[in-house]
Amino acid sequence: MTLKILALTAAVASAVFGVGHDIPKPADVPQPAAASASRLEITKGGTKEKPLVYDGKGQSVQGITVEADNVVVQNYKADKPSAPGVELTGDNITLQNVTVTSPQGGDGDGLRFFGNDLKILNNTISGTRNTDGRHADCMQTFADGTPASQRVLIEGNRCEQIDNMCLMAEGPNDGEGDGNGHSSDFTLRNNYCETLDASQALMIEDIQKLVVEGNTFAAKPDKAIGLAIHSTDARIGKNTVSKDIGCYVGIDDTSRPGYQGPTPSCEP
What we know:
The chain is mainly β and 268 residues long. It has 1 helix and 24 strands.
């Protein structure tokens, strides 16, 4: 069963869209009973200046699907939702303070995102499992019949007990995409990443202008960051890397133009 909710218009807090704005109290969003047995489906948005705010206030749902522009989704919990636990498609979407635990079925991903001007803030995703041939990432994006993504901020999130990668990001021209558009301007800042089985914590293919700084890479994959297939102009800042990770940055020749950061020491 799918849960559809109409949100009321509310301005977005300054913590999301900039410092120095007044922080109004979010409007209440009607929450029907027994929502914990349903997946939240959001298809209505606001405007760029006044997104619609969907505030779960700690409510449990069986996953979240957003197909709308100009929305804020916050304060929901999803325990064993159908994978992906959260799927975002649209522009100017903020997802914050959402918890996804042990997504089930599909490819096992915690979060998939597609679109421009996305903010993924202070969420916790845990327990993705590579059982039955899955590639269960904490977060994933690609561009094959789905929009390429630009201006994506991923900040303050925790990826815990993740079998596959914390982020698998593939642009439209990686050889498997549809060739439409470009994926660029991704910032990953102050996230915790614990990947258990994959060779890389972050695998980036055909994403230009990537910033990775202030993150913690835990567990012991072969490498923390892989840059491949024209992932140019990447900037790798001060991250904390477990001593059990043999290679900090792996890179191929097509991704070296514009690279700034520690000397790469392996292939991606």
